[in-house]
Amino acid sequence: MIESLIAPPPATIAPPPTSITPPASSAVTEPVKTVAPIVFNTTIQNTAFQDKEIRVPVGSTVIWTNKDVVLHTVTANDKKFDSGRFGQGQSFKYVFTEKGIYSYFCIPHPLMVGKVIVE
Ligand SMILES: [Cu+2]
Fold first, then answer.
1. What residue numbers bound the domain in which 60 lies?
2. Could you give phi then psi for residue 97, rounded to 5 degrees?
3. CA gap 56, 31 in Å, rounded
4. Is this model's pTM higher than 0.90 or not?
5. What separation in Å is there between the alpha carbon of 105 and the centre of ligand 1?
6. Which residue among 5, 47, 55, 60 is least enclosed by CB atoms within 10 Å?
């Protein structure tokens, strides 16, 4: 038995997408508060992060400067950033482009901890 091939139906042309209208209740909009990013300088001294909690607006840069003679790191718990070991007088900087809470520690001294809160 030979079945004749049935030709596929002609491709239908999709209707143009309907334009999305904004909701009518958009008259009251909350003002968007934007806080300009800052540069926050902090130090590592006496085997401790001197600012345990740093609160900055999104887009801000945090600069850690090591005042100790021993090497330290600034390492995010989730490894999102890691300075590597850096010595006295050296700095590490990181730009926080996303809101969130960033907990970090020092690899040679795991009891050294701190966090950056980006708002
Ligand atoms: Cu350390």
1. 35-118
2. -95, -5
3. 20
4. no
5. 8
6. 5
Distance 85 CA to ligand 1 centre (A): 8
> CA 10 → CA 6, 13, 56, 92, distances in Å?
12, 9, 59, 63
CATH number, domain with residue 61: 2.60.40.420
Domain membership flag for residue 22: no
Name the residue among 57, 51, 33 with its Cα closest to residue 118: 57
The per-residue pLDDT for range 11-67, each reduced to its tens digit, is: 666 555 566 555 555 556 667 677 899 999 999 999 999 999 999 999 999 999 999
Q: Helix, strand, or coil here: 54?
A: strand
**CA 40–ligand 1 middle distance (angstroms):** 20
pLDDT of residue 39: 98
Compute the distance from residue 73 Cα to the ligand 1 centre, in Å: 6
Distance 76 CA to ligand 1 centre (A): 13
In total, how many domains does the chain have? 1
